[in-house]
């Protein structure tokens, strides 16, 4: 299963097409294949291909079309990672279980939360380092009446949905520094949202575009053993088709590859990258860690 998913991630990256220029007979050297030079004779340089996801620090990789336990009533009591990752989400209590919808998001399978108390819970092993990435493929079906939890790690880090439909980063606050708030504008339709904490910054990306930024990272450098992971609850009414948690901050090329994989799978267009300023140095010590 690991090899199949790894191949899927690689294949999900959009291929780079290099346009072929009209041959320049005056500047092109004999024996050189046509299409490798521009009209001026300068060598073409292809952009670097996005790297596939490094799976060594994946805490959870949950897909609604894979490893989902569904009852006859379409209730979801368990959702397991679809690769060799330690996270499994559970909910045994009736009335708190989300439902499975085979066409819940972009006509693809999704786990649907009803906006009351639906929630799935799991635990992760001890995590070291203050670098984190969390990605959701999600859709808001109804706006919450208050700030509501989307994805939460150890009660201190994650993503929340505001009453206006925008996102807010949940992150520890340094008592010696001004309170940092990272938020986005309201989401529209199905979205690929990513929270990156690391390299001295906290960022929120929506469909590949950075929409929120604080140049500080207060992520916990050490997560205790069996830290709780929470998906949903507090009034979230919507669908989740994928949830990914990594114990490192994905560099832009890997984050883009992951977003492109989900973009292709769920037919969600990506926007331009990084429109906000991003300078160095930033506050926050970089502590790389592993599961």
Mean pLDDT: 80
Which structural class should the secondary elements be placed in? mainly beta
Number of extended strands: 18
Give the helix tally.
2
* Major sheet description: 8 strands, antiparallel
H/E element sequence: HEEEEEEEEEEEEEEEEEEH
Low-confidence stretches: 1-40, 280-291
- How much strand? 25-35%
Task: Please provide a brief summary of the model.
This protein has 291 residues and is mostly beta strands.
Overview of this structure, please?
The protein has helices at 2-12, 252-266; strands spanning 58-63, 68-69, 78-80, 88-90, 99-105, 108-114, 119-124, 127-128, 132-142, 148-153, 157-161, 167-170, 191-198, 201-206, 209-214, 222-223, 227-232, 237-246. Helix content is 9%, strand content 34%. It contains two helices and 18 strands. 41% of the residues are buried. The strands form four sheets. Strands 1, 5, 6, 9, 13, 14, 15 and 18 form an eight-stranded antiparallel β-sheet that branches. A hairpin with an 8-residue loop joins strand 2 (68-69) and strand 3 (78-80). Residues 1-40 and 280-291 have low confidence and may be disordered.
Secondary structure elements and their pairing?
Layout: H1 2-12, E1 58-63, E2 68-69, E3 78-80, E4 88-90, E5 99-105, E6 108-114, E7 119-124, E8 127-128, E9 132-142, E10 148-153, E11 157-161, E12 167-170, E13 191-198, E14 201-206, E15 209-214, E16 222-223, E17 227-232, E18 237-246, H2 252-266
Antiparallel strand pairs: 1-18, 2-3, 3-4, 5-6, 6-18, 7-17, 8-16, 9-13, 9-18, 10-11, 10-17, 11-12, 13-14, 14-15
Helix pairs in contact: 1-2
């Amino acid at each position: 299963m690991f090899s199949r998913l790894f191949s899927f991630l690689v294949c999900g990256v959009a291929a780079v097409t290099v346009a072929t220029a009209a041959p320049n007979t005056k500047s092109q050297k004999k024996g050189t294949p046509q299409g490798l030079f521009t009209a001026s004779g300068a060598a073409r340089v292809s952009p670097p291909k996005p790297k596939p996801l490094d799976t060594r620090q994946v805490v959870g990789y949950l897909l609604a079309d894979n490893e989902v336990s569904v009852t006859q009533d379409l209730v979801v009591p368990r959702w397991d990672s679809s690769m060799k990752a330690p996270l499994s989400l559970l909910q045994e209590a009736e009335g708190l279980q989300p439902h499975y919808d085979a066409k819940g998001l972009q006509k693809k399978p999704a786990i649907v939360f009803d906006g009351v108390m639906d929630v799935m819970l799991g635990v992760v092993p001890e995590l070291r380092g203050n670098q984190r990435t969390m990605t959701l493929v999600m859709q808001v079906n109804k706006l919450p009446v208050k700030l509501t939890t989307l994805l939460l790690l150890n009660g201190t880090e994650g993503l929340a949905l505001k009453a206006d439909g925008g996102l807010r980063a949940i992150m520890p606050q340094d008592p010696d520094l001004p309170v940092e708030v990272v938020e986005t504008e309201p989401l529209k339709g199905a979205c690929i949202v990513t929270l990156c904490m690391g390299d001295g910054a906290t960022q929120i990306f929506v469909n590949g575009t950075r929409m929120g930024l604080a140049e500080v990272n207060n992520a916990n450098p050490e997560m205790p053993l069996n830290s709780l992971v929470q998906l949903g609850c507090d009034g979230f009414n919507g669908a989740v088709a994928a949830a990914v948690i990594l114990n490192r901050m994905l560099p832009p090329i890997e984050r883009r590859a992951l977003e492109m994989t989900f973009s292709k799978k769920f037919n969600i267009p990506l926007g331009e990258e990084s429109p906000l300023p991003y300078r160095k140095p930033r506050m926050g010590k970089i502590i790389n860690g592993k599961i």
